[in-house]
Amino acid sequence: MQTSVRILDTVPVTHNVRHYRLERPKGFGFSPGQATEVSIDRAGWQDKKRPFTFTSLPDAEILEFTIKSYFDHNGVTNELWSLGAGDHLILRDVWGTIQYKGPGTFIAGGAGVTPFIAILRHLNATHRIAGNRLIVSNQTEKDIILRDEFEAMAGLDVLWTVTNDSRSSLLQERIDADFLKRHVQDLEQNFYLCGPDPMVKDLRALLEGAGADVGNVTWER
Hints:
Blueprint: E1 3-14, E2 17-23, E3 35-40, E4 50-53, E5 62-68, H1 76-80, E6 88-95, E7 104-109, H2 114-125, E8 133-138, H3 147-151, E9 157-162, H4 177-183, E10 190-194, H5 197-210, E11 217-219
Parallel strand pairs: 7-8, 7-10, 8-9, 10-11
Antiparallel strand pairs: 1-2, 1-6, 2-5, 3-4, 3-6
């Protein structure tokens, strides 16, 4: 299935991230954490598909994606930056394996936080956010996505770390084995991972090596 939907507006999030708010086709459903393959409905772009996660609440009147654009090459995300209200995107079938299984720690690298946005928004809206934790690594403080929104979720424990921003007052540590020893004490909880493939692979191995049950670790397969 595929359908062309109109962009209602775009909202800046960071220097290279925007919300893309779209009309919602009748009967179009998804669960928090799920994604779809998206194309730009312009000549020469319709067959160039990229996976993006829905970041709106599942019962919202509109659809939303929160997308980071990469300006170093002429790809889909670079072209997306040129779009605005009235342009169209092509959406396809919904899929995804990052589903909420219960309270735990969400660990993300950069834009890898996007699959967690709808999950955490939904937990917050349904008063179930307490007991969850969000750990995100970015290169610099200005790269943090939705910092104010996450920090405003009462009951959500948030830990930011940056790896290339010496002027920042935030934690400046890479998420490695030593980081997990210092900052993650409960290895019996649920873990949710998203980020660059090498990071996710390393974190899965580190968590398992530290004693976490691999059955409690969720990632995009």
